[in-house]
């Protein structure tokens, strides 16, 4: 079967252009979503994927209508390929059933991996440079040492609830628990 998938991001947009192009491309059924590409839950796409059988072809108007990102698109194409389903894009004239179409997707995948590695390298270089200048990553501490001791004393006195201590000190529960854990570990180390 030849199945189509169309997606628009907002209710203000119209599916007619995509729907017409998919029907012209020979789609027997068109699955549709009105959802941002960044949304992971797309019921039309889920229904399409659930109905696919080996030998089917999914037709889309443009590649950006299918995947939320290049990585997501490549993952979907690999999933389709693993189940014996082809993908055809009307605007880009790409067909993964052909050798040339598969080559294009492998190139996309290689470029995406290259980009991820570049970003990782830049991030590591930036962190190393910051460390060399004496900068330390992470959030700044919420309480100075004196206020931290007050919070710990209030906790150990057991006269106030955790919520009350957090409210008095202006910190969240996880911050207070982190201070408690840190203080307890210092006590164990010194023992």
Automatic annotation (TrEMBL):
Domain Resolvase/invertase-type recombinase catalytic: 1-134
GO biological process: DNA integration
PANTHER family, alphabetized: DNA-INVERTASE FROM LAMBDOID PROPHAGE, SERINE RECOMBINASE PINE-RELATED
Name of the protein in its database record: Site-specific DNA recombinase
Organism: Giesbergeria anulus
Stored CDD domains: HTH_Hin_like, SR_ResInv
A molecular function (GO) term: DNA binding
Active site: 9 (o-(5'-phospho-dna)-serine intermediate)
């Amino acid at each position: 079967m030849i199945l189509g998938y169309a997606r628009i991001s907002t209710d203000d947009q119209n599916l007619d252009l995509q729907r017409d192009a998919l029907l012209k491309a020979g789609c027997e059924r068109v699955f549709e979503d009105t959802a941002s590409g960044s949304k992971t839950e797309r019921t039309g796409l889920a229904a399409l994927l659930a109905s696919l059988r080996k030998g089917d072809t999914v037709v889309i108007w443009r590649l950006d209508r299918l995947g939320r990102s290049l990585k997501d698109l490549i993952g979907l194409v690999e999933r389709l390929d693993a189940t014996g389903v082809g993908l055809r894009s009307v605007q880009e004239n790409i067909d993964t059933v052909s050798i040339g179409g598969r080559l294009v997707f492998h190139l996309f995948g290689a470029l995406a991996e290259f980009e991820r590695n570049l970003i990782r390298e830049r991030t590591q270089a930036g962190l190393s440079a910051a460390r060399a200048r004496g900068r330390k990553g992470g959030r700044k501490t919420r309480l100075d040492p004196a206020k931290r001791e007050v919070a710990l004393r209030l906790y150990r006195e057991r006269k106030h609830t955790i919520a009350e201590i957090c409210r008095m000190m202006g910190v969240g529960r996880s911050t207070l628990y982190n201070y408690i854990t840190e203080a307890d570990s210092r006590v164990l180390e010194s023992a």
